[in-house]
Amino acid sequence: MARRAGLTDRRYGNYVTGDREPDLATLLRISETLQTTPNDLLGIRLTGDEDAKAKQLRRLLDIARAMRPGDLQLLTIQAEAIVAARAADTK
Question: Quick one: pLDDT at residue 54?
């Protein structure tokens, strides 16, 4: 795991045992390598609506990653239109 994340075994071991804490860039690299989130690695758990929203955002991001550039641009425009319509409704 350490080598896949570009770290030495000793450095990664220090993070695992809690002897040291990674900087943000290293934390992100480790979470990407483990295919998880920094929050999961840090033990931060969301509850209720926040957790449901986080799941939806991850799902949307996975879908967006699989899209062609033109389709992604269309999705972005549609999402911006939805947000603008909601903002107009609250005025």
Answer: 83
Residue 41 neighbours by CB under 8 Å, 6+ apart: 27, 30, 31, 34
Sign of CA dihedral 24, 32, 41, 46: positive
Residue type (1 letter), 48:
G
Let me know: does 2 contact 11? Beta carbons within 8 Å.
yes
2-29 pLDDT per residue, tens = 899 999 999 999 998 999 999 999 999 9
Q: Which two tokens stand for residue 88?
A: 């107009």
Residues 65, 71, 74, 78, Cα dihedral to 10°: -60
Choose among 66, 2, 62, 70: nearest CA to 37. 62
